[in-house]
Design brief:
Blueprint lengths: L14 H22 L4 E9 L5 E9 L11 H11 L2 H20 L7 E5 L2 H5 L3 H12 L6 E6 H6 L1 H14 L2 E7 L6 H5 L5 E4 L1 H5 L8 H12 L3 E4 L5 H10 L3 E2 L10 H9 L6
Parallel strand pairs: 2-3, 3-4, 4-5, 5-6, 6-7, 7-8
Antiparallel strand pairs: 1-2, 1-8
Bound molecules: ligand C2E and magnesium ion (3 copies).
Length: 281
């Protein structure tokens, strides 16, 4: 195949691009089929309170299991395609239902878990019925609103600010908690952030990774200071080392999540993992 210059405006589609489009449509079709056939899974990754060192929450993370023990595609590939196709609206409702079931299961084992975090995408806000949908799911699943923490990225918050803010206000009045995911990687201004009805900032793992070998960590420090001044909680994602955990705890970061503590796991494994923490005494 001849290399075509991207600056040549007569070239709209290269053969590679066409293949890629077909590939994306194939993935979306396979995802839809597998979702409707009940083949998707939700795994859970523990979140720990840095003050107590004990589990206090967990994040629901979609998985697309394939044949054997592998995965068809990772979420970094299939979630954007599910968003692009609109399929994330149905899948996202199902994830919320699964979170309700997981909530019942963790409540039964006295784990100290007070909330389950669920990621929510732009298309789920677009029809303006997200708060209503969530209220319905919480009711049907008998999950208390305070046990649900929605994770939205800055790009979700900036997509249709009025619609998103209205939905978030309604949800927070119900008692649902809201966190800004991947915080620090978006383009929102402090003014825009201030207008958002939120409870916590989830520090992006790229900033957490800077806390290494005694250097870096200044972004994390700035974010924690900002959160503390504005009355928000902070959760650090991607914590992989004891050094990072210690640094975050010393700063007064509220919670941490990462491979240092635990990887995402199926619900039954997470329940076993939680049993390894002796009861508070
Ligand atoms: P996210 O919400 O920022 O989730 C955190 C990601 O970081 C997860 O990737 C998790 O497995 C990974 N992670 C956790 N701890 C560590 C660590 O210590 N080191 C490293 N390197 N990675 C760590 P995962 O599960 O592959 O999910 C990727 C993204 O897919 C999520 O990022 C989220 O944006 C999206 N996603 C996953 N499940 C859902 C869902 O149910 N709905 C929506 N809308 N998006 C989802
Ligand atoms: Mg939390
Ligand atoms: Mg998240
Ligand atoms: Mg994140």
């Amino acid at each position: 195949r001849a290399k075509q210059s991207v600056t040549d405006s007569s070239v709209r589609f290269t053969p590679e691009m066409e293949d890629n489009t077909r590939w994306r449509l194939d993935v979306i079709r396979a995802l839809r089929n597998d979702f409707r056939a009940g083949k998707l899974a939700v795994w859970y990754q523990p979140q720990l309170s840095l003050a107590t060192g004990r589990p206090c929450g967990m994040e629901a993370l979609l998985r697309w299991p394939g044949e054997g023990s592998g995965f068809v595609q990772p979420p970094s590939v299939f979630v954007p395609l599910a968003e692009y196709s609109g399929l994330i609206v149905e899948i996202g409702e199902w994830v919320l239902q699964q979170a309700g079931e997981a909530w019942r299961a963790v409540s039964a084992v006295e784990s100290g878990i007070t909330h389950i975090a669920v990621n929510v995408s732009i298309p789920q806000f677009r029809n303006g019925k997200l708060a209503e949908t969530i209220a319905g799911i919480l009711g049907a699943q008998r999950m208390p609103p305070y046990a649900l923490e929605l994770e939205i990225t800055e790009s979700v918050a900036m997509d249709e600010p009025r619609r998103v803010i209205t939905a978030l206000k309604t949800l927070r009045e119900m008692g649902v908690r809201v966190a800004i995911d991947d915080f620090g990687t978006g383009y929102s201004s402090l003014g825009q952030l201030q207008a958002l009805p939120i409870d916590s900032l989830k520090i992006d793992r790229s900033f957490v990774a800077d806390i290494a070998n005694g250097r870096g960590g200044s972004f994390v420090e700035t974010i924690v200071a900002l959160a503390q001044k504005t009355g928000l909680e902070t959760i650090a994602e991607g914590v992989e080392t004891a050094e990072q955990a210690g640094f975050l705890r010393a700063l007064g970061c509220t919670e941490a999540q990462g491979f240092y503590y635990a990887k995402p796991m199926p619900l039954d494994e997470v329940l076993n993992w939680l049993q390894t923490f002796p009861p508070r005494g």
